[in-house]
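[recover] target loaded
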């Protein structure tokens, strides 16, 4: 049977409760633009389904009866966001309205086969989710790679080449017996930026860490291509000899470039510690500035973003060269976007962006399930959600 207007009203009430709880009935009526009777009926049905509970009393209700807050119970389920990096892995678990249940940040273990990596990730998720109540609704794993269709991994960071393809996603999904989606760390980072600042509409983001990754949005919607070539800006020329952008805007690539130019560095962080008067460091910084300028120029003339963000381990170096980058861009472009860096908590910030993706997917799936699962008989009180 097709959904009725009553079903759609109930779905709209569920959307608002999931997005804005805890909230009063009056606020719910205001946000849905539905009548008091319609909202009351939908709330009682959602209460029976296990998605709404009373969450306390408004202490500043004014005259008349105090307003009771409506909330989403923990038993409605939980979601997981994972930042699976080449160096650090973070797992964040929240309930369906984004309240944290637990998180963990650990060094990424070295894996030589996909099944072992899948078991390791699933064990981390299980440990972090142990206090959660209700079903696991969605897992999103963000990693330094290009991802197509939420499952197929292309061009990951060098230490993670073994995870190319679909095998890791399949392994994790089978072990968890829950929906699992893979995405790029750049998409997760940009989603976190959009969540923090709702005024941003059109933006681009470069994740400059183990590998160069790129994300962009239009009208706050992340752009996703049809082929693995979309967003693979790292394969383009940096403007320095035969180096690609990934060869200068990734940690491994920049370390190789530094060594080729006589700078003895073991890890990229050594570049911040090297004397600024060091001749080799000056050459490296000049090349890095050119690469950043090239990357921003590409997106400025093709995507016209309002803002361009840089995140990742190379962020301190981007901060150092940004004044020169802006000067160069002003000489070549009629207008330049706002360029800024975003500080992140290693391992956790990407996981937080992945968690927001998990919540959005879960909310959409619950809405669809509600519209497809019309109740044909009398309702019964239950402790667990009905769908």
């Amino acid at each position: 049977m097709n959904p009725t207007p009553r079903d759609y009203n109930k779905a709209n009430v569920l959307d608002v409760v999931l997005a804005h709880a805890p909230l009063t009935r009056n606020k719910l009526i205001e946000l849905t633009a539905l009548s008091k009777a319609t909202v009351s009926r939908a709330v009682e049905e959602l209460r029976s389904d296990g998605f709404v509970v009373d969450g306390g009393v408004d202490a500043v209700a004014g005259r008349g009866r105090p307003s009771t807050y409506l909330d989403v119970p923990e038993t409605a389920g939980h979601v997981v966001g994972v930042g699976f990096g080449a160096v650090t892995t973070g797992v964040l678990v929240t309930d369906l309205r984004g309240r944290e249940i637990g998180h963990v940040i650990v060094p990424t273990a070295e894996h030589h086969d996909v099944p072992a990596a899948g078991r390791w990730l699933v064990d981390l998720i299980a440990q972090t989710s142990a206090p959660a109540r209700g079903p696991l609704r969605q897992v999103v794993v963000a990693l330094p790679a290009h991802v197509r269709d939420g499952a197929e991994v292309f061009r990951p960071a060098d230490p993670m080449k073994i995870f190319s393809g679909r095998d890791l996603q399949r392994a994790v999904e089978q072990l968890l017996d829950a929906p699992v989606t893979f995405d790029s760390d750049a998409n997760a980072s940009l989603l976190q930026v959009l969540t923090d600042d709702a005024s941003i509409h059109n933006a681009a983001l470069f994740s400059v860490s183990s590998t160069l990754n790129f994300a962009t949005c239009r009208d706050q919607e992340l752009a996703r291509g049809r082929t693995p070539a979309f967003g693979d800006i790292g394969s383009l020329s940096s403007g320095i000899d035969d180096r690609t952008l990934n060869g200068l805007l990734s940690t491994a690539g920049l370390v190789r470039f530094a060594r080729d130019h006589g700078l003895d560095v073991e890890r990229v962080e050594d570049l911040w510690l090297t004397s600024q008067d060091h001749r080799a460091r000056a050459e490296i910084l000049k090349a890095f500035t050119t690469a950043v300028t090239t990357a921003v120029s590409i997106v400025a003339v093709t995507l016209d973003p309002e803002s361009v963000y840089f995140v990742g381990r190379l962020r301190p170096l981007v901060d150092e060269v940004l004044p020169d980058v802006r000067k160069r861009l002003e000489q070549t472009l009629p207008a330049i976007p706002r360029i800024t860096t975003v500080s992140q908590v290693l391992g956790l910030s990407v996981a937080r962006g992945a968690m927001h993706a998990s919540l959005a997917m879960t909310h959409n799936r619950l809405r669809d399930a509600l519209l497809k699962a019309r109740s044909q008989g009398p309702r019964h009180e239950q402790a667990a959600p009905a769908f």
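[recover] notes: The mean pLDDT is 90.
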